[in-house]
Write a structure and sequence with these properties.
This protein has 378 residues and is an alpha+beta fold. It is built from 6 helices and 20 strands. The chain starts with 5 loop residues before the first strand and ends with a strand.
């Protein structure tokens, strides 16, 4: 394995073996650029001109099939103009190809001519979440991503999955530093005019990193946000497919909503609670949005009452850990899962004071196949 870099003050690796500044002890940027012979450069670097394109132009990162009268379908690569972005999940947009207007899911598009269209760029991603994604199944040694720095606004970090013969799968982090005249570098011996050129170089050779960059971090296509007006839904829109469990108050099923959205459906026993009391509690619960809470999507208010929530593919955490797949989880991943579960106990300080979470092992769920996420249900 190559040199993995020195320890950086912001707890990220930064490989800079050359001279340090006498005043701030930071690595000096290259006095003169040493060019990679395989990358075409102009004779003198000139910062790129500002784009004349308006800020509200986006490009589709995935294909989207419309499901409602007001949403707008589009193909991957199609360009759209954002008309209204007041809703955090659904943008009103106009297709530059068809001229049609409608709502589009914001997580299916990225800004035109920006790094958001690159498969290796993750805009709003923390260091810990980067580690979870890279350690998830589907990624191997050399899987990588570039994210915005948490500690230095305007800067970036490179996260790479590596294999250590004593520790197993580990994640190394490198600070990507900015040049005053424009450009980026990890080691002062070579700099790049763009992050794309940096990725191309280290994809050919490790050149001081712990390993060569092999492939962008694998993630599943995003799930479209729940439609904004779908709260009380008709029972006919739901299809119960497989019973997942049962308890004192009813059953839990895996099902489909409108034949295209996988959901979990809680079927409450008749007489468990009055419809008015249920609606009062459900309306309070739907206001709660947190990355560690299983999201409540919709309800059926006629008995038997249905509660429609986010579906966690691997089910109960305690049951999953007893399976052969769960027993084979490496120790580093188990520690992260424990940390996520420990975070549940902090939720009471962030939620509505009228709501209390009962922390029982059967209420904790996991999504492990493509991402490592533990959540709790109310």
């Amino acid at each position: 394995m190559g040199n993995c870099g020195s320890f950086d003050p912001d707890d990220e690796f930064s490989y800079h073996p050359d001279e340090l500044c006498d005043q701030c002890n930071c690595p000096k940027p290259p006095a003169s650029q040493n060019y990679d012979p395989l990358i075409p450069y102009s004779s003198q670097y000139t910062p790129p001109p500002s784009s004349p394109l308006p800020e509200n132009l986006v490009v589709a990162l995935y294909k989207y099939e419309p499901c409602h009268s007001d949403d707008l379908g589009f193909e991957k690569g199609e360009k759209l103009k954002i008309l209204n972005a007041d809703d955090p999940e659904w943008f009103m947009a106009e297709s530059l190809f068809t001229g049609q207007r409608g709502y589009i899911p914001q997580n299916f598009v990225g800004k035109l001519n920006s790094m958001e269209t690159e498969p290796w760029f993750f805009k709003n991603l923390s260091r810990n979440d980067a580690m979870r994604l890279l350690l998830a199944p589907g990624n191997t040694q050399g899987s990588f991503l570039i994210r915005e720095s948490e500690t230095t606004p305007g800067s970036f970090s490179l996260s790479v999955r590596d294999l250590d013969h004593t520790q197993g799968d580990i994640i190394k982090h490198y600070r990507i530093r900015n040049l005053d005249a424009g450009g980026f570098y990890i080691t002062t011996k070579i700099s790049f005019s763009s992050l794309s050129e940096l990725v191309k170089h280290y994809s050919r050779e490790a050149d001081g990193l712990c390993t060569r960059l092999v492939k962008p971090c694998q993630t599943r296509a995003p799930q479209k946000p729940w439609w904004q007006d779908e709260w009380e839904v008709p029972r006919e829109s739901l299809k119960l497919e497989r019973r997942l469990g049962q308890g004192q108050f009813g059953e839990v099923w895996m099902g489909l909503y409108n034949n295209n959205r996988r959901v979990a459906i809680k079927n409450l026993k008749t007489g468990t609670m009055s419809i008015s009391a249920f609606l009062a509690e459900a309306n309070l619960m739907k206001t709660l949005q947190h990355p560690r809470l299983v999201r409540l999507f919709a309800v059926v208010t006629q008995e038997p009452i249905y509660i429609i929530t986010e579906f966690m593919e691997n089910g109960s955490l305690v049951d999953f850990l007893k399976t052969p797949e769960g027993c084979a989880i490496p120790i580093n991943t188990l520690i992260d899962m424990a940390a996520q579960c420990g975070f549940f106990w902090q939720l009471d300080t962030h939620l509505n004071p009228n709501i209390h979470i009962a922390f029982r092992e059967h209420k904790m769920f996991i999504r492990y196949n493509v991402e490592l996420t533990c959540k709790i249900t109310l």
